[in-house]
Amino acid sequence: xxxxxxxxxxxxxxxxxxxxxxxxxxxxxxxxxxxxxxxxxxxxxxxxxxxxxxxxxxxxxxxxxxxxxxxxxx
Length: 74
Hints:
The chain is an all-alpha fold.
C-alpha cells in the first residue's frame, strides 16, 4: 500500500491533503466535519479511514532534520 502520486502541488506540513473551502477556523464546525467527510462524534468511518490509508499512506514522520528551535525564535 504505497502513496498514490498526485499531480497537484506537493503537500505542505501542517496543511490538509485536500484543501477546505476556507481555512478551518473560518468555518462553522459542521461545515468542517462535512468537508473532511468525518463524523463529529465518531470521527472517520472504517471505510473512509481505509480509503485514506490507501490514498495517502501511513501518517509517519520522515527522517528529515526536523524543526530547529533557534529558527523558531528568530
